[in-house]
Design a protein that fits this description.
Layout lengths: L1 E3 L25 H59 L5 H14 L1 H33 L7 E3 L1 H11 L1 H4 L3 E7 L6 E3 L1 H25 L6 E10 L2 E8 L6 H4 L11
Helix pairs in contact: 1-2, 1-3, 3-4, 4-6
Length: 260
């Protein structure tokens, strides 16, 4: 159980956006250079998100147009097929009827009228996922102000779940249990999101490790729970993976310790 409070002391420690390079005869420190590299990557990601969002938007608008007009078009085709059957009974325009019948058979009208709406719905779902990813990337690529700021905890968690989907979609189900009303907290959003993302990815890796050691264990479960607390919120991320090895449990909070 982890309590996140509304004060600046609750946030993870780290370099601020106003940090300057330490003086050294050998130039900027490796930590400073790494920080600047991450900032550059963040700016690049923000540009990519913008470039993806623009074409996705007009594709979504065109898809909305097709979803509105396709039912009318398919209804007209079905009426045309009925009309052709009626004309056949009169033995008039046999060549035209034969040509239209041939085109209808090639079209496979029953199959098309059944599958086109499904294809449009699946396309809409795909675009909705793109929009969700773009929104999450926008949250992640916002520059750190260097000081605590108000954080929408539910939004931050949803962004992390969306961005880590490629890690968990094949190995686990993710359940999100958020209280209806969460208090506003203050902190370093970028650092908080990185912690949340790391916890989710670690949970996925623990589940993968259990699947590799236990063939009978097919699909894991990750549960993210957030409830109000007296001084902020309580966050709990639980999984049914292999767990932390006994030899590592006393060291998990040591700075720079990792089993990766």
């Amino acid at each position: 159980m982890k309590t996140v409070t509304p004060s600046s002391s609750s946030t993870a420690a780290g370099p601020s956006g106003t940090e300057t390079a330490p003086a050294s005869d050998e130039g900027p420190s490796p930590l400073f250079r790494a920080q600047r590299s991450l900032e550059a990557i963040g700016q690049l990601a923000a540009g990519i998100v913008h470039e993806v969002n623009t074409p996705a938007q007009f594709v979504a608008d065109n898809l909305y147009f097709l979803q509105r007009t396709t039912p009318v078009l398919l209804s007209a085709l079905r009426s045309a097929a009925t009309l052709v059957e009626a004309i056949k009974q009169t033995d008039t325009h046999p060549e035209l009827v034969a040509r239209v019948e041939s085109e209808m058979n090639r079209l496979r009208l029953d199959y098309v009228t059944s599958e086109i709406p499904k294809a449009l719905a699946q396309s809409q779902e795909g675009l909705s996922r793109i929009a969700s990813i773009v929104h999450s990337m926008k949250l992640f690529s916002r520059p750190d102000r260097g000081e605590p700021e108000p954080i929408d905890f539910a939004e931050a968690i949803q962004a992390c779940i969306t961005l880590s989907r490629n890690e968990w979609k094949l190995v686990a189900e993710v359940e999100m249990d958020l209280a209806e009303e969460l208090p506003s907290i203050s902190g370093h959003r970028e650092q908080l999101q990185q912690v949340l993302l790391n916890l989710l990815i670690n949970a996925c890796h623990a589940i993968k490790a259990r699947q590799e050691s236990d063939p009978s264990f097919e699909r894991g479960h990750i549960r993210v729970s957030v409830v109000p607390a007296e001084d902020g919120v309580d966050l709990e991320i639980a999984d049914d993976g292999c767990g932390i090895p006994n030899e590592a449990r006393d060291r998990v909070f040591h700075p720079f310790f990792t089993t990766k």
